[in-house]
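User: quick one, fold this
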Amino acid sequence: MRFRILAALLAAMLLTANAAWAETQMREYDLREGDVVPPGREEVLDVLFERLAAAENEAESRSFESAIREIWLDSGSPSIDLLMERGFDALREKNYDRAYFYFDEVVTLAPDFAEGWDKRAAVHYVREDYAEALRDIEQVLRLEPRHYQAMAGLGIILEELGDKKGALEAFRRALALNPWLEDLKDRIAPLELEVEGRGI
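Assistant:
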């Protein structure tokens, strides 16, 4: 797992203008030598979120988003990974009952794996079971407080339920973590007018 995380980090760093920094990291964490322990999961995420916030263009931001998603999706268990893959296949086929079955299995077998809760929340959402979706999102954010996708999902549900103020707060929290969520900026502007007015 550590090597996958490190590979994701280094791949993202190599796509940035700071290639010298990435090359230094590659030399420091020479996987062939095996004599240096790579940084832990949270430390890698810290760096990726810092780089995501400081990204200078969309291409850079997408590389960091991809690396963060890869870490989030790394369950550390081949059986959980297989269940997730089957759940994703079912989602693509719009077979929501089957998708729910697989993601529910993930949540049952790996309750500390945030992505299982996140994807089951997505199934609840498309079924318009907002109460269950909100419960699952709460678990996602308990396990991964920086999960900007879950925060954005929370905002969408709250907005549909009429909680404009709550939606605005959720969207702002998501955007603070990932300033490249352009669709949220489009959602925030009208909410600001509704919730806060035009100002003086």
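User: anything notable?
Assistant: DSSP finds eleven helices and no strands in the chain.
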